[in-house]
Amino acid sequence: MTDRAAARRAARGAVVTLVGVLCALFAAWHIARYRAPTAALACALGIIPWLALLPGLWRGDRQTHVAATLLTVPYLGYGLMEVLANPGARLYAGGLVLVAFAVFVALLASLRVIRPSTAAPI
Fold it and tell me: Are the CB atoms for 72 and 34 separated by under 8 Å?
């Protein structure tokens, strides 16, 4: 396995792991916050977009990584709003902001690793 392939594999694993942590934190927060039907709906609305992107993230598809960077923005905004406005949710919301930012950074780093090589064919 080449160094480039190992870097792609590590970047892909980091992104998928962080997305799993983000979804788990989002679900835990809403399960603790709402009753069961409302929590199920909130979790579904927050997690289904990531589940739709997960196969492309696992394959290392560049377009999926670009779309996923855009998907982190609502989590950052929602978490930041709750940190500022809801003292009872600051622990979950702060964690959500930090993990969403980590997902964003990991996605950008993986985009650098998975970009097509610019070497000219011989």
Answer: no
